[in-house]
Amino acid sequence: MPVRLSDRFDFDRKESDDRNMNKKISLGLAISLVAVSIAVTFVLTSFFSLKKYNRQIIDVNEKGKVYSSLQLLDAQTREKYYGDINEENLSEGILKGYVNGLGDKFSKYLSQEEYISEKTSNSGESVGLGLTLAQDSSGYMRISEITDDSPASDEGLEVNDMITFVEKLDVKKAGFDEAVEAMRGTEGSSINITVRRNGIDKEYTLTRRTMEVQTVTGEMLNGYVGYIKITGFKGNTPQQFADILERLTSNGAENLIFDLRDNRGELMESMAECINPLLPEGIFASAEYKDGHTETVIYSDESELDIPMTVLVNGNTASAAEVFAAALHDAGKAEIIGVQTAGKGVLQEINEFQNGSAVILTVAEIVTPVSGSFNGSGITPDYIVENEDEQYSKALEIIQQKKNGQT
After folding, report:
1. CATH number of the domain enclosing 172
2. Distance between CA atoms of 341 and 322, rounded to whole angstroms?
3. Which of 110, 211, 367, 406 has CB atoms 3.0–4.6 Å from 401's, for a disulfide?
């Protein structure tokens, strides 16, 4: 049937109207969806903003309570306290109390004097007399060790001498801790002590000075075993370690024993320098921070000392020393002998204030790729040996078995 022109026009107009209606529906739907999306976004944003705001309000309110209480305490103390107030001591006491309130035994506030002492110690130096003291059953201080080339060695003091008086302080009456504190002083200052040897007392005047601390010692055993004792990881430890490692390997060391017993760790950076030449290439420890990011603690280059090793540890092996042991173990380089370690698997950061004081805060947890975190649990040795003499003997036994091709 033929289609009239008017019919075609009506048909085309209807089809056009349908298309326009679809366009209108599509556009209307799109506008509605956008409106809903904006509304949802606004609601969610408002919700989370409100939560954040409420948290901030709570935080501000809590801080306000603390500061209000502190202000009230200060006002009452200044009004009623009978004694004199040392403003500097009071300020430091407040800061120390704040950090102590964290309940973290590794975080601490340091006064200017304490921070100077901390930096000196970390550098591998000490200011003093060159004496290591122990509490004797008599109540006096017994000299247990004397540093070579020190004020004490220069004056002829000997191991097992008893210190009975420090200046005019009776050591027995004052107690060990107070007497040790009285021995401390600044470089160039003098101190008078009374020393008892074979029942005879003699007075000495010693002048304190700065001395380098020897944190690494080494010797050859049985002609082919290199024994290296590391007492701590300080600023000068890497150079001492490198010198002794070179000497022992040059003298024919085919095996190495690393003695980390009573090593409290100290500087992680120094430990990383020491262990680098022992490991194959790779990352062997990382630090995980509060915000979720990680940083590499130990990265070893491709240079590697490829000889058998063993590590001696005890309950006082901590922090960087634990990482040293774990890294060698995880790399398949060494077996660990001794007892469970301290479990200090956290990292501290030092922040200095304008007045020369500083705060040491725990900021991250140490994690090794294989062993994982050892914080709070410590590292379990491959061979549990409690007696320290037997630990040493066990290391030599394992080395001898390997030398003989035994498993």
Report:
1. 2.30.42.10
2. 7
3. 406
Token readout for 12 is 């085309």
Do 218 and 192 fall within a single domain?
no
How many Å apart are CA 261 and CA 258, to the nearest integer? 9
Residue 282: strand pairing partners = 300
What's the distance, Cα to Cα, between the start and end of the chain in Å?
103
Determine, yes or no, domain membership for 267: yes
Domain count, the chain: 3
DSSP state at residue 157: -
Instruction: Tell me how far apart the alpha carbons of residues 255 and 153 are, in angstroms, rounded to a whole number.
Output: 35
Residues 230, 185: one domain?
no
Residue 196 to residue 144: CA distance in whole angstroms: 14
Q: What angle do CA 181, 187, 192 make, to 5 degrees?
A: 55
Provide the residue range defining the domain that includes 168: 125-211
Q: Say how far residue 350 (Cα) sits from the centre of its chain.
A: 10
Contact 147, 212 (CB under 8 A): no
Cβ 143 vs Cβ 132: under 8 Å: yes
Upper half-sphere CA count for residue 114 (Cβ side, 13 Å): 13
Q: In 3D, which of 106, 387, 146 has the Cα closest to residue 264?
A: 106
% helix, strand, coil for the chain, step of 5: 40, 25, 30
Given a contact cutoff of 8 angstroms between Cβ atoms, the answer to whether 285 and 323 are in contact is yes
d(CA 396, CA 398): 5
pLDDT at 2: 39
Whether the model clears a pTM of 0.85, i.e. scores above it, the answer is no
Q: What is the pLDDT of residues 153-203, one digit of tens each?
A: 999 999 999 999 999 999 999 999 899 989 988 889 999 999 999 999 999
Question: What's the length of the chain?
Answer: 407
> Could you tell me the two tokens for 272?
């990383």
In order, the DSSP letters of 25-49 are HHHHHHHHHHHHHHHHHHHHHHHHH
Which tokens go with 302? Answer: 């491709």
Residue 99 lies in a domain: no
